[in-house]
Automatic annotation (TrEMBL):
GO molecular function, one term: flavin adenine dinucleotide binding
Keyword Aminoacyl-tRNA synthetase recorded: no
Cofactor(s) of this protein: FAD
Active-site residues, Swiss-Prot/TrEMBL: H582 (proton donor), H625 (proton acceptor)
Name this polypeptide is given: Glucose-methanol-choline oxidoreductase N-terminal domain-containing protein
Keywords (A to Z) from UniProt: FAD, Flavoprotein
Keyword Nucleus (UniProt): no
Family of this protein: Belongs to the GMC oxidoreductase family.
Top-rank lineage group of the source organism: Eukaryota
UniProt region (Disordered), positions on chain: 437-459
């Protein structure tokens, strides 16, 4: 963002002060980096040559390396949790293969506010969708972390478990198949509590700690920064009719507005699943091996029996060397909602016609692989902030900004607090687009109500959130100079679904991602309602006091949104919708006859010895954030695998 420098300084002084502050900033950054590098137990990660067989011209079946029971592909949000839980049983030997490296020494995967700094770097798969016909005609950027811990290293750290009804809907969609009931909220929520360790906060005394997890490995709480605008947003929402609630993560449901609980620990550190689960103690287990920079190119199958059986994996290292490894009992895909279906298709499991187009021999015809892609589109609104309380200085280049940043760095280094612990998405609200108290019938006639796609009468289809700075195109766009806050509308229950397809049979080619954003009138109309509501909240006290009318007529800003008609709002929605980074459902748990890819035990249909444990298995996208639900899926997945392996033993 181009920002003006202080006009009271003459250029000469300005230049030398800038140089000095830049130097100080550099020194502090180095100090921070050094401080963190002291902590990283990254050295426990294994050498691939001791974990797998080098492949140099040997026959297809010569990869026997009898060391592992379970090979997990993808050491991301789910993969790290799964590896740690499985290896609690010392009789289960686990190999975890991750394409990226350890995140522990990565400053930007540690200091909460800095995640955007990893966008488009080597730590990001840097994915793009196809041009979106119904959303501006342009390709949209999809950040995805290439690191141990996966997107838990790159996400906005909002800890949210979605709506209880979401999981009852998941269970119901299994049509009574064995194990379906294990996914109801009543049953599944024990895995939510299992991973969580809630640290109570004096600032949020109304949170009932007895309803929160207290002894899991993942610390959550309210250790993130709270900008001046954040409580004002919460109050403005309450004044506009959205109840302020202390906790949106309980059996009571998720409707209301609140300060976001975050995956940030009491020292102000981002809590990733690598940090939480792959602790030095866990890495010392003799039955766990972690290999990083291992890009898995396919799952290996034994096709000699009547049903193909997954028996191992092939991976390459950046050096170009190829390795194969055998899984005696299971292969688990935890490569995320984009790469899990990609690897399945590269391995011959997917829509048969599509695989043949790319000369891939079909192991199992499963049309559901890569289909039913769901994501949450978001529309970002920008408002000038008269109170100048924005925390945009963290990315600013002016002298004043640099000086503020230095003080913020010091506060962070010394106390683990301050603006650098902002997760940016600081306050969140969950509402229903047909709530009469928010959308009065005089203004929103019931006959214009969007179709109800929520998972139940107590579940939302919209999320609104506040950011004490603003951005366009994931910080890739430009706004006029100044202080801003952002209000954002998220479509939680889209009726549009998309696909992940192969671009080629080359495993290094990213797959074709087509989320089909806003391809139904429903999706646009729900977001138009959200824009109306946000526009009202922006003009409601006390947020209204923050609005700076000066320069607010700029077409890039949204101060005059309430003066526009629905068609203009729909155009705004289509033109500027982006991803909230929640792709899911690309290897969904559903009956096979309904396009499902895995059964309620997360086993892939049509083959043996293969499971999926990550966001791909969501039957339908949850009405909330996805990291927490993914960790809970991994916790349950670990129990399912342990149960099956102990049956084998018996
Ligand atoms: C910018 C951003 C912000 C977000 N904000 C939030 C938030 O605030 N709250 C929230 O709840 N959720 C948020 N999310 C979403 C959430 O983080 C994800 O839904 C969740 O982390 C996905 O977990 P996963 O295990 O399915 O996949 P991932 O965590 O992506 O893990 C997949 C892993 O597989 C590895 N991999 C992929 N292909 C291969 C291969 N061929 N070989 C070996 N390894 C491979 C990847 O490198 C990665 O480590 C955000 C996501 C992003 C990107
Ligand atoms: C939080 O993370 C920091 C930094 O790695 C660590 O030193 C500290 O022990 C963690 N806090 C807790 C309570 O685990």
């Amino acid at each position: 963002m181009p920002l003006p420098s202080n006009p009271h300084l003459n250029q000469q002084t300005a230049r030398s002060v800038v140089a000095a502050s830049a130097a100080a900033l550099g020194a502090l950054t180095i100090a921070l980096r050094y401080w963190y590098s002291k902590k990283g137990p990254g050295a426990h990660v294994g050498d691939p040559a001791t974990a797998a067989r080098r492949v140099n011209g040997v026959a297809e079946d010569e990869y026997d390396f009898d060391e592992y029971d379970v090979v997990i592909i993808g050491g991301g949000t789910a993969g790290c949790a799964l590896a740690a839980r499985l290896t609690e049983d010392s009789s289960i030997r686990v190999l975890l293969l991750e394409a990226g490296k350890s995140s522990l020494d990565e400053l930007f995967a540690t200091v909460p506010i800095s995640y955007g700094q990893m966008f488009h770097t080597a730590l990001d798969w840097d994915l793009w969708t196809t041009p979106q016909e119904h959303s501006g005609g342009v390709a949209k950027y999809w950040p995805r972390a290439k690191l141990l811990g996966g997107c838990s290293c790159l996400n906005a750290m909002v800890f949210h478990m979605a709506a209880p009804e979401d999981y009852d809907e998941w269970a119901l969609a299994q049509k009574g198949q064995e194990g379906a009931n294990g996914w109801t909220y009543r049953e599944f929520s024990k895995y939510m509590l299992k991973f969580e360790k809630y640290l109570p906060s004096a600032r949020h005394p109304k949170v009932d700690a007895s309803l929160r997890g207290e002894s899991g490995p993942v610390e959550v709480g309210f250790f993130g920064h709270q900008a001046n605008g954040t409580p004002k947003f919460i109050e403005a929402c309450a004044n506009a009719g959205i109840p302020a609630v202390p906790d949106v993560n309980t059996a009571k449901g998720t409707l209301g507005v609140t300060k976001a609980m975050t995956f940030i620990n009491s020292s102000g550190r981002r809590v990733t699943t690598e940090f939480a689960y792959l602790t030095p103690d866990v890495l010392r287990r003799l039955n766990l091996k972690v290999v990083t920079r291992a890009h898995v190119t396919r799952v290996l199958f034994d096709t000699s029996g009547s049903t193909p059986r997954a028996v191992g994996a092939e991976f390459t290292q950046p050096s170009g060397e190829t390795f194969r490894v055998k899984a005696r009992k299971e292969v688990v895909l935890s490569a995320g909602a984009v790469h899990t279906p990609h690897i399945l298709m590269l391995s011959g499991v997917g829509p048969a016609d599509h695989l043949r187009e790319h000369d891939i021999s079909v192991i199992a015809n499963l049309p559901g692989v890569g289909s039913h892609l769901m994501d949450h589109p978001v529309v970002d609104l920008h408002f000038r902030d008269k109170s100048e309380s924005s925390i945009a200085f963290v990315a600013g280049k002016s002298l004043a900004h640099r000086l503020k940043l230095i003080s913020a760095l010091l506060q962070y280094r010394l106390r683990g607090s301050g603006p650098l612990t902002s997760n940016i998405c600081e306050a969140i609200a969950f509402v229903r687009s047909t709530d009469r108290s928010l959308f009065p019938p005089e203004e929103f006639p019931p006959e214009t109500d969007p179709e109800d796609t929520t998972s139940g009468p107590g579940a939302p289809d919209l999320e609104l959130f506040f950011t004490p700075l603003t951005y366009t195109k994931h910080t890739g766009g430009v706004l006029p100079p100044g202080h801003y806050f952002g209000l954002h509308a998220v479509l939680l229950r889209p009726s549009s679904t998309g696909t992940i397809r192969l671009k080629s049979s080359n495993p290094y080619d990213a797959p074709i991602i087509d989320p089909q954003y806003l391809s139904t009138p429903h999706d646009v109309s729900v977001l138009v309602r959200a824009l109306r509501l946000l526009s009202r909240i922006a003009r409601t006290a006390p947020l209204a006091d923050m609005l700076d009318p000066v320069g607010a007529d700029d077409a890039a800003l949204d101060h005059a949104l309430h003066t526009r008609d629905d068609a203009a709002l729909a155009e705004r929605v289509r033109r500027t919708a982006e991803t909230l980074y929640h792709p899911a459902c690309t290897a969904r748990m559903a009956p096979r006859s309904e396009g499902g890819v895995v059964d309620p035990a997360l086993r892939v249909y049509g083959v043996e010895g293969l499971r999926v444990v990550d966001a791909s298995v969501f039957p339908t996208i949850v009405s909330g954030h996805t990291a927490g639900p993914v960790i809970a899926v991994a916790e349950k997945g670990a129990d399912l695998i342990k149960a099956d392996l102990s049956k084998l033993k018996a």
